[in-house]
């Protein structure tokens, strides 16, 4: 079968022929419909993130998948069920994080991530997965089901951020997303439609006209150009933020977030930068965290209940927003365009098969 | 009546004669027993923290008090009840934080702090307080009731830190206290006796023999000399910490805490440093927060329920620990020694009256 992979030593994807997977006991065979492309895929291609499966000279790409059960293989699924796979798998048998249903809390070395770390991804005509790592979604979500994984990342981050504010009465009104990539825009839409904050902001560094700025403003949020208003000046220019969601991986933002927060606010950190030394006013930031009861909460990955919540969320986001977010669905004859990274590309997916209702 | 105050322009306490307070409606008149001395009092004396009451040329010191109801003034209290006052008061009528019973969450400008910011403290023969800001404690706690306020600070910080870990199964085993002052030692004793962590550490910078190191080791905790093992090297030298409690106000510790934590750990920040610029590897710290689901939670002050919890906690701390912690109780003829800040002084209090059971 065809698969989109990155080969050892290369930094561009290739389409190669790989063996069709055979489900083991407890596993389901899934026919892949679509697989989204995101920044992590680009980091994997660049070689800055991830790890090939042991003994393999290539890695099948892709971790944002939606597919249809082709062979339920004796599990509770039925042929034709529309499913989304979670990403982490136990590397050497189970461990306590997987036992608890919280693989997202496993430390490095205690998980593989399909399409990223040590395990093949979903960009192939078929994939297999233990039934417990699949989440069934409504058939009508098949076309955009590849958005459920990124939405689940935000479900988890918000769950943890909100938990950090659960020891007191917290009535957040203002929220800022740092970053206007697809994850930032999905999160902004959640802030407006499913959480909903009264006032929302999205921080980017793009000139108008720009399709992401249009989306931000169509959502009713305020676009902030960080070249004019640095993140730590948000309170002076707009207002202190009850919640800041960092989705840039730009490390200075993590620390500027402390100043961007309103008293009792929380910053959810999602980006994954590499080492970078710089100067901060650490005394003032420390004091600000303490005297105003602020918190920073890092969050990575997500688990089954976050995928289930994400499916509900996807169902309540407006169609016009989703239409403008997804800028391209590309078949295997045209997959290069799914990996384009220009100012008109927001969210793309590679299509392996069209969904046909049975 | 006699009061221990700091006068405008001075940096040492004085004993002066001030008018005896008269309780207003809803207020109780309390005869002061003992008032503890802590680092905040020293910062107030140095002038780096706090603010005089409007129009006053002195500030009555002290915020860690225990007393006996002298005149219940029509409230639900009875003469002879042993009480501890909370610290924050609404500055201009109530505000929503006080309405909710959470004055500790009020931002700057929306609170006074008795003995610190804008309101007289408790270091006088009598004080008044609205009944709602008093917490009744068992009579047998009268001698050490001045420890309830500092314990309440930790009750709140731990409540918030633990809340931040409530979105997943968290089973903390290791905890480190940064700082071997009286708050650090009280917290360490709580980690050992009331929470209890399996392995506890306390980080200081003292040479042996030292009474705080003796207390640490008598509690069964490990003393770590930060001159030999910097905070960010705790995982390499000992283990990653599920919880770090920062009680030094040394700003670099707030950021080193991120590296000191085990995966999924939380750092509770308590210290209040001033501005201080320094370099950090912000990229690595940001990445570490995200990839290992870590959190930093700032915490200041405490409210009534934390004082109630602190009274329970005080009742379960071992007597020998409390005996070694409290190094001096000094009357008004000897108050200077309560403010001594040498390596043999750990926790002191000024005594205004001896407790007599009625």
TrEMBL record, chains A, B:
Binding-site list for NADP(+): 180-183, 205-206, 270-272, 299-301
Gene3D superfamilies xref list: Medium-chain alcohol dehydrogenases, catalytic domain (3.90.180.10), NAD(P)-binding Rossmann-like Domain (3.40.50.720)
GO molecular function ontology, one term from the record: D-glucose binding
UniProtKB keywords: Carbohydrate metabolism, Metal-binding, NAD, NADP, Nucleotide-binding, Oxidoreductase, Zinc
PANTHER family reported in the protein's UniProt record: GLUCOSE 1-DEHYDROGENASE, ZINC-TYPE ALCOHOL DEHYDROGENASE-LIKE PROTEIN C1198.01-RELATED
Function: Catalyzes the NAD(P)(+)-dependent oxidation of D-glucose to D-gluconate via gluconolactone. Can utilize both NAD(+) and NADP(+) as electron acceptor. Is involved in the degradation of glucose through a modified Entner-Doudoroff pathway.
HAMAP family named in the record: Glucose_DH
Stated family: Belongs to the zinc-containing alcohol dehydrogenase family. Glucose 1-dehydrogenase subfamily.
The protein's name in its UniProt record: Glucose 1-dehydrogenase
Organism: Halalkalicoccus jeotgali (strain DSM 18796 / CECT 7217 / JCM 14584 / KCTC 4019 / B3)
Protein's gene: gdh
């Amino acid at each position: 079968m065809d698969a989109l992979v990155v080969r050892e030593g290369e930094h561009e994807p290739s389409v190669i022929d790989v063996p069709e997977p055979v489900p083991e006991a407890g596993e389901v065979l899934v026919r892949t419909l679509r697989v989204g492309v995101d920044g992590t895929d680009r980091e994997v291609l660049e070689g800055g993130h991830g790890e090939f499966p042991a003994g393999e000279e290539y890695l099948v790409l892709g971790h944002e998948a939606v597919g249809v059960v082709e062979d339920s293989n004796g599990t509770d699924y039925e042929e034709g069920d529309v499913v989304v796979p979670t990403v982490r798998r136990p590397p050497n048998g189970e461990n306590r994080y997987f036992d608890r249903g919280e693989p997202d809390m496993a430390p490095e070395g205690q998980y593989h991530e399909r399409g990223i770390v040590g395990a093949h991804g979903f960009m192939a005509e078929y994939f297999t997965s233990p039934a417990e790592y699949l989440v069934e979604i409504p058939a009508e979500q098949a076309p955009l089901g590849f958005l459920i994984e990124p939405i689940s990342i935000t479900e988890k981050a918000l769950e943890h951020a909100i938990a950090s504010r659960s020891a007191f009465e917290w009535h957040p009104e203002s929220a800022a997303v740092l970053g206007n990539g697809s994850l930032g825009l999905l999160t902004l839409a959640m802030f407006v439609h499913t959480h909903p904050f009264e006032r929302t902001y999205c921080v980017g560094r793009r000139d108008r006209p720009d399709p992401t700025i249009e989306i931000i403003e169509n959502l009713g949020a305020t676009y902030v150009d960080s070249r004019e208003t640095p993140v730590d000046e948000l309170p002076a220019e707009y207002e202190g933020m009850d919640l800041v969601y960092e989705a840039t991986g730009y490390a200075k933002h993590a620390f500027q977030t402390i100043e961007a927060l309103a008293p009792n606010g929380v910053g959810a950190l999602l980006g994954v930068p590499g080492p970078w030394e710089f100067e901060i006013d650490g005394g003032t930031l420390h004091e600000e965290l303490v005297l105003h009861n602020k918190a920073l909460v890092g969050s990575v990955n997500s688990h089954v209940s976050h995928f289930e919540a994400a499916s509900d969320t996807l169902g309540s986001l407006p169609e016009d927003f989703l239409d403008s977010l997804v800028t391209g669905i590309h078949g295997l004859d045209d997959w290069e365009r799914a990996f384009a990274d220009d100012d008109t590309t927001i969210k793309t997916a590679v299509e392996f098969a069209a969904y046909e209702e049975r």
